[in-house]
Amino acid sequence: MSVPEIATVVGSGTMGPGIAATLVRAGAEVRVYDISAEALARAEQTFAFASGVLDQVGGPKVDGGSATFTTDIGEALAGSRFVIEAVPEKIELKESVLKQIERLVGDDVIIATNTSGIPISDMAPSLERPGRFIGMHWSNPPHLIPMIEVIPGDATEQSTVDELVDIVNSFGYHPVLEKEIAGFVENRVLYAILRECVALLDEGIVTPEALDTCVKWGIGYKLSVIGPTRLLDMAGVDIYAAVSGYLNKQLDASTDTPQVIKDKIAAGELGFKSSKGMYEYGPGEVDAKRKDITAGLVAALKTLSSITPV
Ligand SMILES: NC(=O)C1=CN([C@@H]2O[C@H](COP(=O)(O)OP(=O)(O)OC[C@H]3O[C@@H](n4cnc5c(N)ncnc54)[C@H](O)[C@@H]3O)[C@@H](O)[C@H]2O)C=CC1
Ligand SMILES: Cc1ncc(C(=O)O)c(C(=O)O)c1O
């Protein structure tokens, strides 16, 4: 199966435009919908940027893809064969948007959610046809991270799972089929790392710059080639037993969002979007960092795609 001829992206903030660019490159006629005209205007620009990045990467391209941007949900969903919801991570909002979508599409249309980790079965009861509802978790930036978690809920039909796996394969991404669990797999791992990182910073064990160097070169570089399961074999399962025996009980085990992060939110220090977060950014610096991150990911994607999978 190829990517559906007509697809709709609902919610066009950080994730929507890159998702749309990926689907368009795979040949789909994509309608991008958002309730906010301002968000859509920004999305047109980020979509164009993401499409340019995909040209730079130079992967397979299917002719005939196109994108239109609209604040009219009926227009966005008319004739659509596949819908990906990417509105903010609030369950009540998602449920109401999902219901709205379901009323406007055919019975056999797949409705996927890009939730970062809300269990699919928690949202499914809001739908009349939960069999066609499924988790499709893209990673940020979605046009450059070629892995998508596919998460069926209790009521998701097997045909929905199979079709989504085919769709993900059709644009050359790696589908990762998982059993349902809060946070799914990627964010459980990422948030275990981030919890420890924030604790180490808060305790003054390491500076932000030194932490980033340590994790990027000591862990990220290595894991981008070998993966954690293989890493256990390379290090030795006996080493893991020896170290985890004394270390696991010392690791941060807090269950709430750290106070230092709550303080930053209260101060409006949200990161790139407010020019101050964990770091502070001078004029033009956020754009420069975004460009460097894109260039780095493009180079790494090309290299990692060309090496033997381990
Ligand atoms: N930002 C990230 O790194 C990642 C986010 N996600 C998930 O993807 C989803 C979207 O995240 P972001 O793009 O970061 O959010 P965002 O806040 O940047 O964008 C959400 C967009 O949805 C629009 N919206 C709000 N209510 C709407 C409605 N009723 N109908 C249509 N559009 C509506 C907003 O105007 C906004 O443009 C969330 O569930 C998030 O957890 C998943 C992977 C990575
Ligand atoms: C900090 C953070 N949180 C969530 C996600 C996600 O995948 O949902 C990401 C991401 O990189 O995609 C993230 O960086």
From TrEMBL:
Keywords: Oxidoreductase
Matches recorded under SUPFAM superfamilies: 6-phosphogluconate dehydrogenase C-terminal domain-like (SSF48179), NAD(P)-binding Rossmann-fold domains (SSF51735)
InterPro entries listed in its UniProt record: 3-OHacyl-CoA_DH, 3-OHacyl-CoA_DH_CS, 3-OHacyl-CoA_DH_NAD-bd, 3HC_DH_C, 6-PGluconate_DH-like_C_sf, 6PGD_dom2, NAD(P)-bd_dom_sf
Pathway where it operates: Lipid metabolism; butanoate metabolism
Domain 3-hydroxyacyl-CoA dehydrogenase C-terminal per the UniProt entry, residue ranges: 183-281
One Pfam family recorded for the sequence: 3HCDH_N
Domain 3-hydroxyacyl-CoA dehydrogenase NAD binding as annotated: residue spans: 8-180
Source superkingdom: Bacteria
Assigned protein family: Belongs to the 3-hydroxyacyl-CoA dehydrogenase family.
Protein name, per record: 3-hydroxyacyl-CoA dehydrogenase NAD-binding domain-containing protein
Organism: Gryllotalpicola koreensis
